[in-house]
Amino acid sequence: MLDEKMEQALNDQLNAEMASGYLYLSMATYLEDKELPGFANSLRVHAEEELEHAMKFYDYILRKDGSVVLQAIDTPKREWDTIVDIYKEILEHEELVTSLIHELVDLSIELKDHATNQFLQWFVEEQVEEEELAHDDLRKVKMSIDSPQLLYLLDEEYGQVTNNSENTSEE
Q: Is residue 116 part of a domain?
């Protein structure tokens, strides 16, 4: 059985993961409109992965005999000035998610909830990967600012991203 405080925190994280998926889907839509279908594809895949993360929290709460409480998701941002701005926001967002996961780990330690702590370790490692790959993606798009050819090649590369791909941060 989950402590009430932990149950609420896990529900909040479930919501944050759903909101992440919504944000990345909004970014994908924006990039489709800008005729960058490869980048849009990679962010659509990333959105799907965030929803998978949300479902991990959903399932864990239920396994621990908790109650899932779905919350409203704010409308995500719809416009960015440049593709670099999108990838800067992705990095900032992943850093925020990392801090949320760390807060959950801290709470699990405070409550001596060893099972939840163990469950959260997968997310700790996932966020290390997400931040590392977000840095890499940002570096790539920054290099493409003055090179339409490089932007085209990156768009082609990101168009190959699938849910099991290891090519970009959209894992």
A: yes
